[in-house]
Specification:
By secondary structure, this protein is α/β, with parallel strands linked by helices. The protein has two domains: 193 residues, Endonuclease, Chain A (2-Layer Sandwich), CATH 3.30.870.10; 184 residues, 2-Layer Sandwich (Endonuclease, Chain A), CATH 3.30.870.10. 39% of the residues lie in helices and 19% in strands. It contains 15 helices and 16 strands. A 16-stranded mixed sheet has the order 1-16-12-11-10-13-14-15-9-2-8-7-6-3-4-5, with helices on both faces. Helix 7 runs parallel beside helix 8, helix 9 packs across helix 13 and helix 14 packs across helix 15. The termini are far apart.
Length: 515
């Protein structure tokens, strides 16, 4: 493990997060049952404080713990892809396949052909891919052989005239379920980048997934059903041959399927950061933490928690790398250890706390994932799983560079020679980070350091270019704004008319004068 030394200034200390109080969570007479509430009668053997904690987690995440599962950690495409393909090959009833990117390369063709073969055998195959994720990765007609084989293939959230900004919400999930018996949740998309290019001596992207067996697979199917319905798919039921209560192990877990503007996983991540007592180790592909989440990590570190953050060491978008490093300063000043991956790409989205709790899935630590996308993660409370996650994290640190505070600028000691194309998710996260840094400079609500100079320069140049454009060629700005305003206005009026028409249709007729 090598070291990079950086120069950062002081930062002001924000208010500490308040730890969740141990209090009566459901006052007398207010007990209720919901999908995210544990069955207290069935779980009465547990201590009251444990029941209260589980209720808090369920309320925050919107997902109740599901006991009786088995879980297997899968590292990189070398372990994930073979397990996925094996499960597909053994399918007898149905396959629900959901992924943000389904590339039309060698890896993509392997999965397409495997799914098509099962569709020809009569297995019900549903494939859901994201429009934006596949926009530059998938050639037109790539899914044709799959559709002709009988599979139901749908594209998630194409741009629509009646929703000018609806396309900003993406389906970033990466899940598979087969026959209601086995499921997979991961950070991996389908593409050769995750396999690597041995002929070019380019290593695979680093990523993590899990294999699930047991009753939690039903929750995975339920989450898929929601995004499938949003994309226009017909409702479906689990195969009757797989009872929902079949136990497969002793692991209790939550399937957290988040949707735009719900921010359930954001609250969950905040809660874990507040409750961690010994260690909190995070791996993320596109870290652009919000002020409150960054403060939660700082508070934990200042309270003696071993907080570590592992992120990619290189970026295809130069400003994204500057934004990521700009966010290091307040973390490093307050005891959070930050590491940069030395390989081509660190794409995993995982967390492990206190050797007991772990999270694996598709959600990145930025607002685009927390608030804007459809995401899905598995939250596990199991010492065996957490131990495996910690061992994986420590192995990853052997191929990482630690960032430390010293009187020098940030300089990477390990070159990153494999440029990659940008992704909409990274652009969204970068835009949020740029806005945060520029806003801090304008309002002076926090101190800025040398690491953010490049961000400030980029923001200043962009604003200057817009100002000059408005002065010299005002029509370049006014015409697009007028078109956009007309589009949005027409959309609002059309929706208002539809709502009004629906309201009139729903009104009951007055039959009091009829006899």
């Amino acid at each position: 493990m090598s070291f990079v030394r950086a120069r950062f200034g002081r930062s002001r200390i924000a208010r500490a997060l308040r730890v969740v109080r141990t209090a009566q969570l459901l006052p007398p007479g207010r007990a209720r049952v919901s999908p995210s509430t544990p069955d207290l009668a069935r779980e009465s053997h547990k201590p009251l404080t444990r029941l209260a904690a589980e209720h808090v987690f369920s309320r925050v995440a919107g997902a109740a713990p599901v006991p009786g599962n088995s879980l297997r950690l899968l590292e990189d495409a070398a372990q994930n892809y073979p397990a996925w393909l094996e499960a597909v090959a053994q399918a007898r009833f149905c396959i629900n396949f959901e992924n943000y990117i389904f590339s039309s390369d060698a890896a993509g063709r392997r999965f397409r052909d495997a799914l098509a073969a099962k569709a020809r055998e009569g297995v019900k195959v549903r494939v859901l891919y994201d429009w934006m994720g596949c926009l530059t990765k998938t050639r037109p007609g790539f899914f044709g052989p799959l559709r002709r084989a009988g599979a139901d293939v749908r594209c998630f959230n194409r741009p629509r005239l009646d929703s000018p900004f609806g396309w900003l919400s993406r389906n970033h999930r990466k899940t598979i379920s087969v026959d209601g018996a086995v499921g997979f949740v991961a950070g991996l998309c389908i593409g050769d980048a995750w396999v690597g290019y041995p002929a070019k001596q380019i290593q695979p992207w680093r990523d993590t997934g899990v294999e699930l067996r047991g009753p939690a697979v039903a929750d995975l199917d339920a989450a898929f059903a929601q995004s499938w319905a949003f994309a226009g798919g017909a409702p479906f039921a689990l195969p009757p041959a797989q009872p929902a209560n079949a136990r497969a192990g002793d692991v209790s877990l939550r399937i957290i399927g988040s949707k735009p503007n719900t921010m359930g996983l954001y609250r969950f991540d905040q809660l874990i950061a507040a409750l961690a007592r010994d260690r909190l180790w995070l791996t993320d592909a596109y870290f652009v933490g919000t002020t409150s989440y960054t403060q939660a990590l700082i508070d934990a570190a200042r309270d003696g928690v071993d907080v570590r953050l592992l992120v990619p060491g290189s970026s295809d978008i130069p400003v994204a790398k500057a934004l990521s490093r700009a966010g290091y300063r307040p973390l490093l000043e307050n005891g959070v250890r930050v590491f940069e991956w030395n390989g081509p790409m660190m794409h995993a989205k995982t967390a492990v706390a206190d050797g007991r709790w772990a999270r694996i899935g598709s959600t990145n630590l930025n607002l685009a994932s927390w608030a804007g996308n459809w995401e899905l993660d598995v939250a596990v409370e199991d010492e065996g799983v957490a131990s495996g996650m910690e061992a994986m994290f420590e192995r990853d640190l052997q191929s990482a560079t630690e960032i430390v505070l010293e009187q020098a600028r940030v300089q990477a000691t390990v070159p990153h020679r494999h440029p990659r194309r940008g992704s909409p998710g990274r652009l969204a996260a970068g835009a949020v980070g740029l806005g945060s840094a520029v806003g801090a400079a304008i309002t002076n609500h926090r101190a800025l350091g040398p690491a953010e100079a490049r961000v400030m320069a980029t923001g200043g140049l962009l604003l200057l270019a817009l100002a000059l454009l408005a002065i010299l060629y005002p029509w370049v700005l006014t015409v697009p704004l007028a078109i956009l305003a007309t589009w949005v206005a027409a959309t609002l009026l059309i929706r208002a008319l539809r709502l009004r028409a629906g309201h009139h249709l729903a009104l009951p007729r007055d039959t009091s004068s009829q006899s």
